[in-house]
Sequence to fold (412 residues):
Amino acid sequence: MAEDLIAALRADWTAEQRYMNFGTFGPSTRTTLAAEQAARWAMNADFARFFEEHLRGPLCRERMAEVAALLGTDVEEIAWISGTTEGLNLAARGLRLEPGAEVLTTDAEHPAAVYPWLLRARREDLTVRQLPFPTGDVSPADIVEMFAAALRPTTRVLTFCHVNYSDGAVLPVAEICAMARARGVLTVVDGAQAVGHLEFKLAELGCDIYVTSLHKWTAGIYGSGVLYVRHELIDEVTPLMVEMPDGWSDTTRFGTPAPPDSIDFRRGWPEAMRRYATLYHYAGPTLLGTLAAIEQLSSIGLPQVAARVRALGERLRAGLADIEGVVLLTPPQLAAGITAFRLTQVDPMALYRWLRAEHNIMTRVVDHSAVGFVANRACTHIFNEEADVDALVAAVAAAAAVGLTSSPPPAA
Fold:
């Protein structure tokens, strides 16, 4: 049954390439795009009715409950946002930290996970320290020990990826968060590459803040994402933007007691939504389209999705390992659906352009040259078939045989 559903999903997909760049963007299905378009028509046809049917408190809660089910968490702890970048900025700006606090992270993080903290450090007495992320055959225990050994008395926040966007390493989030909490350190997890890729329940990870995008591996509408804040911490994280005093102030701008909901359509919204989702009323069609994507993945089953993603990743790495000159950069004990590799003597951007122009294969180059990491990256998903993986392996082998230079064929 799962194979039939996966085949139907592929037939519904819109990408015109052998697409393996889900870590950047996941092209939606026709069903997902049709759901978003229908919502936009409904919003324009009768705006007041659209509000009543989709945005008011109980209805908002119903929609967000479907998102909470995907993530495996309480609906009160999640808010709809535009994506991981917004959520990471909110965490960096909103967490209350005393002067002299340190934020610990790694040099493998996405820029959006580090620069918000560096911006805050320009204005406050705050230190940001980036650990070199280990390479080679690294184990989950090695990662936990790396972070544990690096904590200092001044460390107040540990922020890291669930899945590294650079080398595809899957980190042992629950173990890291348990260690950090025992030391009194808050955890902020960048989950951009995890949802729709791995099987997990957010409630079991034990993190304090988790942010993700649903337009990558979930193949939702572009500009969709979720912020999770542990319930006990919600009062400690200041909103990034506000319109009214909902959830964060006891008084109005006139000094009078603030009502529970300053805007009546928010009455009944989940707690995190009221506090952090000021712009949700702009995002109704985005959410409704993304719910269609969630339904498609859920109909297959998240365990089946994760297993299929991992199997295709293993097939790709096995094929690449047989090519002379290929160096696999994804730690084997931490690997899933993202594969990072280099073809020696070939510029990664030249290979990327070769794959795209000559073979209609979409991948990505990850450039962390400042710390010596530059790689080609391929993301395999249930939208792909074994034939796509084998085509990529064959194309890399052909590139190795012809010896690409830094003057590649023009991009398509």
Q: What stands out?
A: DSSP finds 13 helices and 13 strands in the chain. Residues 8 and 296 are 10 Å apart (CA to CA).
